[in-house]
Amino acid sequence: MRNKTILSISFSLLWFVSCNPTDYKKHNNLEMRTYLDGKNAYESNCSACHGKKGEGFNNLYPALNNSSLYQNRSNEIPCTIFYGRKGNVVMPSFKNLNTETILAITNYLMEEYQSEGTKKFFDKNNLEETIKKCSNN
Predict the structure, then answer these.
(1) CB neighbours (10 Å) of residue 31?
(2) How far is CA 97 from CA 17, 29, 42, 81, 103, in A?
(3) What is the C-alpha separation between 65 and 54, in angstroms, rounded?
(4) Measuring CA to CA, which residue among 117, 134, 71 is closest to residue 62?
(5) Longest CA–CA separation in the chain, Å
(6) Which helix (H) or strand (E) holds 77?
(7) What is the pLDDT of residue 119?
(8) How far apart are CA 127 and CA 137, in angstroms?
(9) Cα angle value 107/26/127 (rounded, 5°)
(10) What is the pLDDT, as a whole number, of residue 100?
(11) What angle, 0 to 180 degrees and rounded to 10, lies between the N-to-C axes of helices 99-113 and 76-83?
(12) CA angle 130–136–137, rounded 5-degree value
């Protein structure tokens, strides 16, 4: 009986560990840890204005979900986060965020809100290169 109990507990633990949502399984296109890092960074830095689910707030803060705001203009996302935005829709600069946080937010936004054909995921090198290029504009 004791062996059956130990075996049952072992299988339960194995099942729990293999089904743990925070492991490195993919969330569609992103590794789960990357996705969760981006989601947490978005919630900490962006959701107060853009909403927890990217729904925006009236005409004051644009919606990011199901939005054509950045469709086919993926490079503008990290640039907007880093430099902010002027004009009709103003957004403050988030230069205080480190590269890893901007990378996490950018890739989270790609995964969560861009349509399949327009998703462009960044790595640290091409994110830094993109931010440097947009400083010249």
Answers:
(1) 14
(2) 33, 24, 12, 9, 10
(3) 5
(4) 71
(5) 73
(6) helix 76-83
(7) 79
(8) 16
(9) 20
(10) 95
(11) 130
(12) 95
Both tokens of residue 61? 């803060």
Separation CA 82–CA 135 (nearest Å)? 10
What residue segments make up the domains of the chain, in order of their start?
Answer: 28-134
- Name the one residue in this structure whose structure tokens are 């204005």: 49
For 27, phi then psi, to 5°, come to: -105, 90
Task: Give the residues of the chain that fall short of pLDDT 50.
Answer: 5-8, 10-25
Q: How far apart are alpha carbons 104 and 116 in whole angstroms?
A: 18
The pLDDT score that the predictor gives to residue 73 is 79
**Distance (Å, whole) CA 49 – CA 57:** 7
CATH architecture of 28-134: Orthogonal Bundle (1.10)
Number of other CB atoms surrounding residue 47 within 10 Å: 15
The CA distance from 101 to 129, in Å, is 16
Please report, as a single letter, which amino acid is at residue 119. Answer: K
Residue closest to 101 by CA, chosen among 47, 55, 40, 11: 40
Contact at 8 Å (CB) between 61 and 50? yes
pLDDT of residue 67: 66
